[in-house]
Amino acid sequence: MHFGDLALKILAQEKLSVLLFHAVPSTTTELVNDLTLASFERVIDYVSEHFTVVPLDEAAAALKTGRLPRRAACITFDDGYDSWLSGAVPLLRQRNLHATFFITTGQFDNERMWHERVAHALANHAGPVLDLPGFGLPQVPLGQLQERRRALSMVEQLLKYQPLHVRDKLLHALEASAGTRQDQLCRMTVEQLRDLHAQGFGVGAHTVRHPILSLCDDDDAMHEIGGAREVLEHLLRAPVKAFAYPNGRPGVDFRSEHVRMVQAAGYTHAVTTEGGAANRQTSVFEIPRFTPWGPSDVQMGVQMARNLMAKSRRVMVASSGTPAPDKKATDGRDQRPLVAFVENGAGFGGAVVALQTLLSNSHATGYRYHVVTNMPVGDFTQTAEESVVIPDRAVDYRAMARRVRARLGAGLLARGVLFALGRADDLTNRLPYFLRLVAHLLKVRPAIVHGNNDPSANREAMMAARLLGIPYIQHVRGSVSDSLALPMMRNGPATFIPVSRWLTGELLRSGVPAERIRQIYDGIDLAAQASETTPDLRTELDLPEDTILIAMVGMLVAWKGQDLFLDALAALQPSAKARVIALVVGDTPERGDASYARGLHARAEELGLSDRVRFLGRRNDLQSLLPQINISVSASTSPEPLGLVMLEALAHGCLFVGPAFGAACEVTEDGTTGFLFKPGSAASLAAKLELAIERAASPRAGAQQDGRDLIDRQFSGARCARSTSWVHQHLLDAR
């Protein structure tokens, strides 16, 4: 007996190795590099020689009793492919090996697997680039084979973690762009399913449409889990006992409530994609699986041995998915995990408002919250145990940098001076802030540190958490193309939470794997908005009741595009211009450049808009004003990550006009729920404003309810808080 065989024999005692395969085609394509049939044959030859292959249902029963056969192994397949009957099945029968095939039942209603549709579309896309506004991956090159492979990987990772209705919409857009249809792909037929079962192989359920269960509402998740079993049992006239979780990572792709749904649906066992081997302590509803690939027997043995030694994560079936809200120690101290949010932005703005809404909806999540800000912004007295200010700036080098750029331009001397100012900022501002933050975190001892802004703004928070060995989560609320250039910034956070699909795409392009990304839209609180009183804005501004109000709300900074908005107003047809008053709501942020705001006032006078534009400054009664606004505008010159004002406007039935990039494309359908213009084009914005003005003159009945339904379905504060608490819980469970 070789040493490797002896090691496997020892490691495999009272353990079950479950192998996972998918299509196993006879040959690979240029674009998709699957495990081929020849490689699969080498794997099963090795397994049949070194392990005892048993049916999965027998192995699951033996796990409970501790009577597994010597070096037990099972073979499983996921999804459902017509090629199985001519490829993998004959090889298994030749060796008298049993396997269980987990089937998605949507294909029996002519729906192909979503990732097969993506590969087919990108393989046949004729364009040099994939350019679909709102897709989340603008301008993806397709010219070279490696570029096309990278595009396939990014599109698959992006679509994998989208709700079903979003995934469907994006798939249709991709297929329309490529000129492909899903009926051009083969699928498993009912006859092939019955043939597979008649040959003695096991059949299990793999949901109806292969969604990520953790993204589904409870009713939808139960339909996916139980509905697949009902379809298979109807078609086979036989019981179906086994279930496979789509994508299958515990705590990420499914949670404890989904395990309970699997039990309630009548299954007797279920498998994950978490690596490792099962033993007597393993729940039969979370049996781990992995895929060995060889290519040699020695490498196969190493892979099998490593898997036998791996520790598998699982969700706690007895848990509710969040810590108990009243968890107390015997001495009366609150034992709920503490999450420390670090807000380190440029002042009061969308990130602060989003954090306030998140925490105000988090009272039932079972966590305690602590907020650290770099300046007095926001009111967290009712939602956090404590809110402290740790200043991060003793010297304002940014103002100095603006003066350097204004006087020296972009030459070599300017770059040298700016570099020196940056290092001075590190020494006199950021280093002292980092040390104070470390000392504070040592004092409060959080279980998780959660950066609320973006990687560059929260750099010190990430470094402090890493130094102290505390799990770190990074919210992403703006472009990361520059801030993730350093590997430290990409690798530091355990999880990134982008607030839009566009930001998810940026993270993927920057090299962050999909497994560390959990997209969660910021939420707004409809209940709080509904309780607001409503002073009459037109009376305040001395305007006729039939005046159409167009509002642009946001901090007065150049990239927000208030100057573009003014140019578009000036380009309106006289008949349209005479019917409207434009409101610019907002002020220079605490650490912004006030010269931009002064320039806007001068620009309005220069364009002859003094009687058409009102600068209202910062308003604390925005929720009272929005119901009286007819049209809400975003004119950002850089993609907007997710404008809360856009969501609030939709909730109040306002028409929204925004640029056709960034998150605006995810929320607005051009011509239906609003209008999208060519980014950076005043003429295009003016044309869309004229369409919006016409519609505002005769508003559609039910528009406000449609907007509120959208917010409640996808952008509610409660949904945001619940999803964020799941990320916190998964991070703690993984420790």
UniProtKB/TrEMBL annotation:
One of its GO terms (biological process) is carbohydrate metabolic process. One of its GO terms (molecular function) is glycosyltransferase activity. The keyword Signal applies. Residues 349-527 form the Glycosyltransferase subfamily 4-like N-terminal domain. It is found in: Secreted. InterPro entries: Glyco_hydro/deAcase_b/a-brl, Glyco_trans_1, Glyco_trans_4-like_N, NODB_dom, Polysacch_Deacetylase. It comes from the Bacteria. Residues 68-126, 190-268 form the NodB homology domain. Transmembrane segments: none annotated. Keywords: Signal, Transferase. Residues 536-696 form the Glycosyl transferase family domain. It holds the Pfam family Glycos_transf_1. One of its GO terms (cellular component) is extracellular region. This is Glycosyltransferase involved in cell wall biosynthesis.
